[in-house]
């Protein structure tokens, strides 16, 4: 669902809207004549604009990382890590979080009207890549008058953007914190995404992507996609610990297809609530952007080339039980960085919670981000 | 798709049909007034009927384990392991393989006609459990005049049946070979099954299970279910090695939603071909039977109780890269057996191929099954 959008460069429930003033050329070669980016900021930009941190959201995240979400009414997705006194300390840093290009929370995407026709784009919206998302963010950073980011931080697809930032704009990135991510999307991850897309496309209410014109929404297909994806965000151990084989509101199995098990009820709930806040076509586009991400392929097949000459300081973080973006993917990033002049620290955090650990209450994550960022900020002379 | 069924106790393309002659009471308390089991046999039953081995198939398998499949035209699903001179040696043993109750290859299931109404059952078919499948097989074994099985063998859901046989009919099972299986379905596995079922049920051609009456088939939903399940049958490493990020029939990405990647093309093919040989409601029923499987729960929560007093010899086998039925599940079985008087050997086989390794060319699997079975057969005086 696209949040209501009004005039560009104004503040709405989606945050602030930034209109890109010139035609925006995408990696595919297509051009968006007009596009806008919805973003929020937290904290105060200092006089020399040296305390800005860009936070990049994951697949189904958005710019509302702190505070009540205008659509769901729930808290922001990274309140564990960001806020006053937290590792992403809004008392010290100026945080910027923008809805990705292709998203559905105010930034231009497939649910936006095509300025050429006035009709909702649907599948006529051009494919966007992680690099396109980052280029749009760079224009936003220009617009805010910020030359250099103290840090770029993000988990999962957010981490892909962090890596892309460091590769594409190394002089503008003092430090980078890619968390639970990879420099390329794996075969297994492409596979899971493809199943999700096929679930959406199998829904007759999808109408070849033209559901806006038909007055329908492919909620069933999108819910199935979300249910499947959600399993991959948790570890086997976490599912076993949280749900096991416990039954939901009953003492015996029903010998039927009700949600007998708590895990079934939980997944159905995840699917049902997701469709209220996310656009099905955006799900197709953003998953595809992740599939296409392969930083080495863009640099003659050598990942280290992506970071050659970088002065950025890196803090790479993974979680032991994350099987979607396993530690081996983070190690590959670290090895590539070690082959350059980059300064790298790497922490594999012991956690049983799987991929979603980066969103949860993980003290070692907090301590790691706090220590690394403080050190970078101290070195840059940012008052604490 | 239900294979054509004719008169009971006759041989058809589905193999031989065995009609259960008395009402069959299920674990749910429901009764099937009539039911039939389609089965095939391979090799020759010896005079004292002591060389019979029951082979139990997995979720989407059937009785056609060797030879050309009557529906797909492909080879049997366990030709790697079974046949003349193979570990399940048809020159020495008499192999029996029956389509499970609830299946769709000739045994009674939701796509069978309800004898009370003449209409296809659909969701009015009662839920069946792994124990029900095993009880139906026991009636077939009675019918064949076999008192004791030299072995019961199976992988995945087949392994669940093996364990259930050993627990339910210990005196009739000389040896048991549960492969790549578990004594209970895990939370994660229930979760994956639930997503598959929701994909089927989201297909409007499913019609609340009454698609036979509507002249439709929920092929899109079932294909999505199969695609998702198929990912879980392979390891991350196997997907990376077999497909990686290789493109399908093209040198560049399409910036669209075609099957750019080989893994996408492969999964779509798996989904499309599956629906030609499997009934959607059977998929719901058989996945549910697996979800409900919890052998310890049926024995006061103590798995060892399921095997108390067993004289069965066990050979438990797992594969290192199987994340759907990981080695820890096999270890739990072994630990329970060790707490009884049972004789157990346990082999964890090094393989990169994930859960499906039990169906593939795995020499250590062949050597293990061959050695174990030969030893059991020698002890029982079966001529080699």
Write a concise keyword list for the protein shown above.
homodimer, two-stranded antiparallel sheet, nine-stranded mixed β-sheet, Rna Polymerase Sigma Factor, Chain: A, 384 residues, Rossmann fold, 11 helices, alpha/beta, 2 domains, disordered N terminus
Describe the protein:
Two copies of one chain form a homodimer. Chain A is α/β, with parallel strands linked by helices. The first copy, chain A, has two domains: 11-184 and 295-379, Rossmann fold (3-Layer(aba) Sandwich); 190-286, Rna Polymerase Sigma Factor, Chain: A (Orthogonal Bundle), CATH 1.10.1740. The first copy, chain A, has eleven helices and 13 strands. Chain A has helices spanning 130-143, 157-168, 187-202, 211-214, 219-233, 236-242, 262-274, 280-292, 303-306, 327-338, 363-379; strands spanning 11-12, 15-20, 24-25, 31-32, 35-42, 52-56, 82-83, 88-89, 94-98, 151-155, 175-179, 313-319, 343-349. In chain A, the strands form three sheets. The first copy, chain A, has a nine-stranded mixed beta sheet with strand order 1-2-5-9-6-10-11-12-13, with helices on both faces. A two-stranded antiparallel ribbon of chain A has the order 3-4. Chain A has a two-stranded parallel sheet with strand order 7-8. In chain A, α3 (187-202) runs antiparallel to α5. Chains A and B meet through α3, α5, α6, α7 and α8 of A and α3, α5, α6, α7 and α8 of B.
């Amino acid at each position: 669902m696209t949040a209501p959008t009004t005039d560009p460069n104004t503040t709405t429930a989606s945050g602030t809207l930034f209109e890109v003033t010139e035609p925006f050329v995408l990696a595919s070669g297509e051009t968006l004549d007009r596009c806008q980016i919805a973003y929020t900021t937290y904290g105060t930009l200092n006089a020399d604009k040296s305390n800005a941190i860009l936070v990049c959201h994951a697949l189904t995240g958005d710019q509302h990382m702190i505070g009540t979400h205008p659509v769901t009414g729930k808290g922001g997705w990274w309140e564990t890590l960001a806020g006053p006194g937290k590792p992403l300390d809004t008392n010290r840093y100026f945080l910027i979080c923008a809805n990705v290009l292709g998203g559905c929370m105010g930034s231009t995407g497939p649910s936006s009207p095509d300025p050429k026709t006035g009709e909702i784009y649907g599948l006529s919206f051009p494919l966007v890549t992680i690099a396109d998302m980052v280029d749009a963010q760079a224009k936003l950073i220009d617009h805010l008058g910020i030359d250099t980011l103290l840090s770029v931080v993000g988990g999962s697809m957010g981490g892909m953007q962090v890596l892309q930032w460091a590769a594409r704009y190394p002089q503008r990135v003092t430090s980078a914190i890619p968390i639970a991510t990879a420099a390329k999307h794996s075969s297994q991850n492409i596979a899971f995404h493809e199943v999700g897309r096929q679930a959406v496309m199998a829904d007759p209410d999808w109408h070849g992507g033209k559901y806006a014109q038909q007055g329908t929404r492919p909620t069933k297909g999108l819910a199935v996609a979300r249910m499947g994806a959600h399993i991959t965000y948790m570890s086997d151990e976490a599912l076993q610990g949280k749900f096991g084989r416990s039954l939901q509101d009953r003492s015996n199995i029903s010998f039927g297809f009700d949600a007998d098990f708590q895990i079934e009820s939980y997944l159905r709930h995840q699917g049902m609530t997701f469709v209220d806040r996310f656009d099905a076509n955006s799900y197709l586009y953003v998953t595809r952007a992740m599939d296409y991400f392969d930083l080495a392929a863009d640099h003659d097949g050598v990942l280290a080339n992506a970071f050659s000459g970088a002065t950025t300081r890196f803090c790479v973080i993974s979680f032991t039980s994350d099987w979607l973006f396993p530690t081996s993917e983070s190690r590959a990033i670290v090895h590539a960085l070690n082959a350059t002049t980059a300064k790298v620290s790497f922490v594999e955090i012991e956690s049983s919670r799987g991929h979603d650990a980066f969103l949860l209450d993980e003290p070692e994550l907090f301590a790691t981000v706090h220590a690394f960022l403080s050190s970078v900020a101290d070195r840059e002379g940012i008052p604490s």
